[in-house]
Amino acid sequence: MPPSPLMNVMTKAARKAGRSLIRDFNEVEQLQVSVKGPADFVSKADKQAEKIIFEELKHARPGYSFLMEEAGIVEGKDKTHRWIIDPLDGTTNFLHGIPIFAISIALERDGELVAGLVFNPAMDELFVAEKGKGAFMNDRRLRVAGRQVLDDAVVVTGIPHRGKGGQGEFLSQLGKMMIDVAGVRRTGSAACDLAWTAAGRFDGYWETRLQPWDLAGGIVLMREAGGFVCDINGKQDMLGTGSVVCGNENIQEHMLDVLNRD
Question: Which neighbouring-strand residues pair with 34?
Fold first, then answer.
């Protein structure tokens, strides 16, 4: 299936920003890095990538609103459409030369996520999805993994870093999950975690204390790959709560049971 005009716009913006990120990634030791918070760094590369994406999307779809990690909210004349953008998810990996990071772009229409993209330029993996059209990685159709029990499942999560809070809550969740699964992994990029779960590399994913731009693009990928996505309360307020639990239907249900177990 040829890409739609919308996906062409998103892909063009992501690939242009990706080229900028790779130039800096190859010279990571020379990057000028400022401190945004304890152990939470923001680089010149991050800001430059966001600027590129913003300008490309604004030119292609004048009037759309934006929600971006660095620049925040930019209101447009068109109140029905909003881009949600993370120009560099996995900043710490990036700054340490670890090639697991991604650009995430999503489009929200009338409050509903209708298109998502996650692009890892270091691995040249482009994950895209539109509502009702399926999910793809470099033109290959994606499906979530088919394992049905946690005993066989490898799941992925995020570890709250210093200064973020929630370490005690996470350790409780991890302790409960470790008992029931075959393995737990951590990549350092929520966008990659969602994309890789949509691709069947991981059987499930959970995390809390995230931002909308961490989640939005990957949520569309998961749904269009046949996955089930909810917040940690089993509801559909992922962007509001900043939490996510996903996998195929059975794995997601089992993970929810474990995470909410007393």
Answer: 42
